[in-house]
Amino acid sequence: MSAVPATWRPRWLTVVGVLAVVTTAFTVWLGLWVTPPDVVQGNLARLLYVHPAVATVALYWAGGVACAGSLLYLWPRTRSFFWDRLAASAVEVGAVFSALTLVTGSLWGRPVWGVWWTWDARLTSTALLLLLEIGYLALRRVPADPHIRARRCAVAALLVAIDVPIVHFSVDWWNTLHQGGTILDPGFELHVHGSMLWTMLLSFVAFSLIFVWLLAVRYRIEVLEDAVGDQELEVSLAERWSEDTELVGAGSGTGGSTPGGSAP
Amino acid sequence: MWHDAVLVAGKDLRIEARSRVALWQVVPFAVLVLVLLAFAIGPDQTALKHAAPGIFWVALLFSTVLAIQRSVAVESGEGTRDGLRLSGMDPAGVFLGKAAAVGLQLLALQVVLWAGVTFLFDVRVQVVWLAATACLLATVGLACAGVLYGALSAGLRVRDTLLPLLVLPVLAPVLLAGSKVWQAALSGSVSGGTQWLKILVPFAVIYLVVGVVLYGPLQEAA
Q: Which of A168, A226, B25, B176 sits between 20 and 30 A of A180, alpha carbons compared?
């Protein structure tokens, strides 16, 4: 079996990876040592530098890329496996970030609300988003013709995307325990100030870079998986052909025909 | 489109009328879920009355999955889906027809479930129009979302295990809003119920529109 062909591995991916590490390191330093504890919540407020950024990536970046990629795949003029793979990668990375959103929210909720979990509109809709993403990934794993799988997954991703605005507006539509907008309220009034604001904004940059890096790496794995799948198919076909040729050879050697002597 | 919808709905309902799978399998299953959930809660009549709306909607949701699987299964015969696709029917019409057939079966099922919770849990709906409106709106949403996901899983060998995983999280808002409306209808609080109808309306409209638009691409992928 020949080696997997060299695939897309651009230089900018390394740059984004390095930038993600640097900005994350800065966020950790600012978040743990430079910024002061909150007046009310004390050190718990430091989760502010993780949870909103992770949730933003899970909901808007991953949701947006998955939705756009699926639409562009379904649109006949822009139909390409690039969009299919990008959307699938976005959903998978998005599922990881959705799970992280629930975990970090739960860690914060236990000391502040007194419970690990509460049936609040935003928590429930985020949990549903994770379940929908897991459903999409299960659908993605089902073997099928690549075109059929891509079309099916594109529709499934668009159906998952219906939950994204519900999660976003849940804090406005229902009277939830979860607070409203973290940095800005609907009147665009700032809630966070000073070094805490800058650290928080840096955390958004850091997690967005991590998202881009993970998305690109996952995309690359999709390409490699498809290449390996194609190669395995070719090898299996070649083996089958050689078996048949041997049978034909053996059959003609004894002077009679065999049932396996015909071409597959 | 409407003509095609009527044809497809008529076909599916005729198959159901002849095979009686819905009558002999889906309806008994729904009643079984009612009884099993009552076992889980215990014989405390107050607790059962309190849980009755949730039990009704959980039973309906699980039965919806069976109804959808049945709706997909009638097209799974050799070349049936291809035949439907090559018939030249409008995909939107096919979607509406299949959703209407599932919806009518779900409505009949809800009559049985309503009678079941009244008889088994001794509950009486105070505001009948409120509970009935929730059932009607939920039926549209459940049927449309269900048929759409049914088409998504059609033709897959793992269809039976994959469909519940895909569709139950999607139907969860119906369970939530339907239970709340029924709680309000049981206690006689109209305002508390109408507030939750606001979730059932967009749910039904969104899946109806999305189904009409996306059923075509899905039919080609099946």
A: B176
